[in-house]
Amino acid sequence: GYHIYRDVTGFSYDITLARSDLTTNTNARYVLKLYESHVSPSKYACFSSYSSPTAGTATHVLAPLGSSFSLAIEQFVHFFKLKTKLEWKERNGTLDKESETAFEYTPPAEGEPWGVVDPESIW
Questions:
Q1: What are the strands, taking DSSP E only, across 68-109?
Q2: Which of 19, 25, 87, 93 would you label with 41, given CA atoms 20 to 30 Å apart?
Q3: For residues 48 and 43, what is the distance between their CA atoms, to the nearest angstrom?
């Protein structure tokens, strides 16, 4: 089996990216998850789920079960940048909206684990 991956800081790689459209009063969101296997050596996977009132819900495999950590985390941070227009290492700073189509990430509350700043440093 698999569980949600937690890095050395205790950050859980199970995040939500949201976008509100005030003109139509609708919300859309992606849930992005990075999984780690229960067995050693660890294997990984990465999935995204999209939901909106107009499109319903759809799940996409970004890195299949049994993937290496480098592939799974690469897909995780790439998807994050694609949807938020932010680099992963910039996620906890002040959000400067580049685009009205970008999804927003809400960082963890103060005192909660914020995760490894640059995942490339742990590959």
A1: 104-105
A2: 87
A3: 18
Count CB-CB contacts under 10 A for residue 103: 21
* Listed range (19-23, 43-47, 48-52) with the worst mean pLDDT: 19-23
How far is it, in rounded angstroms, from Cα 30 to Cα 27? 10
Cα–Cα nearest to 46, from 121, 119, 106: 119
Q: Are 91 and 107 in contact (CB under 8 A)?
A: yes
Neighbours of 44 (CB within 10 A): 24
Q: pTM of the predicted model, to two decimals?
A: 0.85
- Please give the pLDDT value at position 44: 97
Parallel, antiparallel, or unpaired: how do β-strands 104-105 and 56-67 relate? unpaired
Q: With the C-alpha atoms ordered 4, 47, 119, 107, is the resulting torsion angle positive or negative?
A: negative
Tokens of 13: 């790689």
Half-sphere exposure of 44 (CA within 13 A, CB side): 19
In the structure, what pLDDT confidence band is assigned to residue 108 with cuts at 50, 70 and 90? confident
